[in-house]
Design a protein that fits this description.
With about 270 residues, the protein is α/β, with parallel strands linked by helices. The protein has nine helices and ten strands. Helices cover about 35% and strands about 25% of the residues. The N terminus is likely disordered.
């Protein structure tokens, strides 16, 4: 494994990093996770700071989505710890977990919009449920603004079925930003899109990263997307980080698995 500043050894870290002081917003320490006899994560350690985008690559079944679930607190690891914004996800209370999740935006692989709600109602959904101090007009205004941020002004009252797949992904991004998160998690954001749609989503993610300085983790099979937006990359295989570094670091690697992965994926 290539040594980088963001792939860490568990024993070297003693206390949670302070994101406000420039420390890691996401700090994964020696995490392992098994389902029955299958070990999907095996001693994973990595960090993501605000303004960074970690892209996680790997074949299907290598634990990429499990890693996202551990970060968001949907799965607790068998071993190791996930420190999110300084809090150990193994020991937070339900109330603390709820507060942490409000600081995380999540874009699901297929956007996961509510079919019965309009575009603007989908974006407003987190605000309606978590921002009880806002009036319906304020919620609508904020949702409309987020649609402008993702380039969908004028589409507010359309139903999800009446917009393209790429536009649905943009609505998903707007909804993920509704609570003004510190962390953004993206599961296959370009899956199912044509090259132009994929490029538009990549450009949007880059724009948001520049403007908002989010700590982002993006799971994808799309190497072009990884090249476009990653500040660093982790390539997983058999539950371990085979190599970590920049896109060029991985592309130049002489490791047989890494070279094979890139030759098959480009």
């Amino acid at each position: 494994m290539t040594a980088t500043s963001w792939v860490t050894q568990h024993e070297e870290i003693r206390t949670p990093a302070n994101p406000e002081a420039g420390g890691a917003a996401i700090d994964i320490r020696n995490v392992s996770q098994s389902f029955g006899t299958q070990k999907v994560l095996d001693g994973i350690s990595l960090q993501v700071r605000r303004g960074e985008t970690l892209v996680v690559l790997g074949r299907s079944g290598t634990g990429k989505s499990v890693l996202l679930k551990i970060i968001v607190g949907l799965q607790r690891p068998d071993q190791g710890s996930a420190f999110i914004l300084g809090s150990d996800m193994n020991s937070v209370t339900d109330s603390e977990l709820s507060n942490l999740r409000m600081q995380m935006g999540f874009l699901f692989q297929h956007a996961a919009l509510y079919d019965s709600l309009t575009v603007v109602e989908n974006v407003a959904f987190p605000l309606t449920h978590h921002k009880k101090d806002l009036s319906p007009t304020e919620i609508r205004d904020r949702a409309e603004h987020l649609l402008q941020v993702v380039g969908l002004e004028g589409h507010s009252d359309k139903m999800p079925a009446n917009i393209s797949g790429g536009m649905q992904k943009r609505v998903g991004v707007a909804r993920a930003l509704a609570l003004d998160p510190v962390i953004l998690l993206l599961d296959e954001p370009t899956a199912g899109l044509d090259p132009i749609g994929s490029e538009e989503i990549d450009d949007l993610i880059q724009k948001l990263q520049t403007e908002r300085k989010l700590a982002s983790v993006l799971v994808t099979h799309d190497l072009l997307s990884a090249k476009n937006i990653a500040t660093h990359i982790a390539l997983l295989d058999k539950g371990k980080i085979v190599i970590g570094g920049s896109f060029e670091d991985l592309k130049k690697s002489e490791d047989q698995f890494v070279a094979h992965f890139f030759s098959r994926s480009l």
